[in-house]
C-alpha cells in the first residue's frame, strides 16, 4: 500500500515556467512506498509558429484539473500527483504543461499520467492561439484527442 | 433572473465581448433557451448557434437542458485545445 495524501495534489495554472526535474523529485521525496514516477512535458512546436498564446477560464480550469486528478485517483493507487499548465504567451520550445504521477509500480504511474493528459486535453478549458507569419489563428480541436479520452471510458486495464 | 455570461477564445473575439450581466426574460429557463435568446440578437451572435459551441454552468460543463437560477455564471466557448 502506497501512502497517499490527496491534499498534496497540486494543480497550478500560471504564466511562469517550471523546473520539471524539481517537480519530479518532489513527487517521490519522503515517500518510501513510491517505486515509480511517470511524467509528461508538453512543449510549443515550432513548424511555422512564432509564438503561442494560451487563454483559459480562471476558476473552472482549476476545478476541471482537480476533478481529473480525483478521477485518476479512483482508478489507480497514486502516492502523489502534480499538474502544471502555463497560460499567456509562449515561444517555440517552451514547456506548456507538466503532469507527474508517483505510485508504487510503473503501470499505475504510466497509465494515470496518460489518463490525466487525455482528459486535460478534452475537458480543461484552455484555448491556444498561434502566431504565424501569415497572422494569428485559433487552434482547432482535434477528433483524435476525443478518441484518446474515450479509450478510458471502460475501466478494466488498470492494475 | 440575473446571470453573468462569459465568452472565451474565438467566440470572445467574434462577439467582441468577454463578459456581460444579463437579465433574462420570463420563459428563458435553461442553457438552450439562453443560447436561443442570445442568437436572436443577430449578427455576430449567430455564432452561438454552432453545434461546436460548448456551455458551462457555474464552472462545470453543462448540457442544453441544464436549468438556470438567479445569480448563475454561464460560459460559452469553442472546443478546448490545451495541453
Strand portion of chain B: 25-35%
What is Rg of chain B?
Answer: 12 Å
**Count of DSSP H/I helices of chain B:** 2
- How many strands of chain B? 5
E-strand count of chain A: 8
Q: What is the element string of chain A, with H for helices and E for strands? A: EHEEHEEEHEEH
Distance between the termini of chain A: 13 Å
Spans of chain A with pLDDT under 50 lasting ≥5 residues?
Answer: none
Describe the structure.
The complex is a heterodimer of chains A (159) and B (83). Chain A has 159 residues and is α+β, with helices and mostly antiparallel strands. Chain A contains 4 helices and 8 strands; from the N terminus they run βαββαβββαββα. Chain A has helices at residues 20-28, 60-75, 106-123, 143-150, and strands spanning 10-14, 36-43, 49-56, 78-86, 88-90, 95-103, 126-132, 135-138. In chain A, the strands form 2 sheets. Chain A has a 4-stranded mixed β-sheet with strand order 1-4-6-2, with helices on both faces. Chain A has a 4-stranded antiparallel β-sheet with strand order 5-3-7-8, with no helix packed on it. Chain B has 83 residues and is an alpha+beta fold. A 5-stranded mixed β-sheet of chain B has the order 2-1-5-3-4. The radius of gyration of chain B is 12 Å and the shape is globular. The interface between A and B is medium-sized, with 26 and 17 residues.
Amino acid at each position: 500500500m502506497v501512502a497517499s495524501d490527496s491534499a498534496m495534489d497540486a494543480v497550478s495554472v500560471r504564466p511562469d515556467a517550471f523546473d520539471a526535474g524539481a517537480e519530479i523529485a518532489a513527487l517521490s521525496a519522503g515517500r518510501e512506498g513510491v517505486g515509480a514516477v511517470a511524467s509528461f512535458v508538453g512543449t510549443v512546436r515550432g513548424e511555422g509558429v512564432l509564438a503561442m498564446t494560451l487563454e483559459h477560464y480562471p476558476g473552472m480550469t482549476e476545478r476541471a484539473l482537480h476533478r481529473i486528478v480525483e478521477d485518476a485517483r479512483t482508478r489507480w493507487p497514486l502516492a502523489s500527483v502534480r499538474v502544471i499548465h502555463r497560460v499567456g504567451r509562449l515561444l517555440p520550445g517552451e514547456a506548456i504543461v507538466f503532469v507527474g504521477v508517483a505510485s508504487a509500480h510503473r503501470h499505475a504511474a504510466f497509465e494515470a499520467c496518460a489518463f490525466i493528459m487525455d482528459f486535460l486535453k478534452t475537458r480543461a478549458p484552455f484555448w491556444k492561439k498561434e502566431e504565424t507569419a501569415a497572422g494569428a489563428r485559433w487552434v482547432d480541436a482535434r477528433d483524435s484527442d476525443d478518441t484518446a479520452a474515450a479509450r478510458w471510458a471502460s475501466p478494466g486495464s488498470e492494475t | 433572473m440575473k446571470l453573468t455570461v462569459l465568452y472565451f477564445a474565438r467566440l470572445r473575439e467574434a462577439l467582441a465581448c468577454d463578459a456581460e450581466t444579463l437579465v433574462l426574460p420570463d420563459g428563458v429557463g435553461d442553457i438552450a433557451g439562453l443560447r436561443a435568446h442570445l442568437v436572436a440578437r443577430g449578427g455576430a451572435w449567430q455564432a452561438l448557434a454552432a453545434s461546436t459551441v460548448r456551455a458551462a454552468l457555474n464552472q462545470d460543463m453543462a448540457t442544453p437542458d441544464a436549468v438556470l437560477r438567479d445569480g448563475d455564471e454561464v460560459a460559452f466557448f469553442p472546443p478546448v485545445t490545451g495541453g
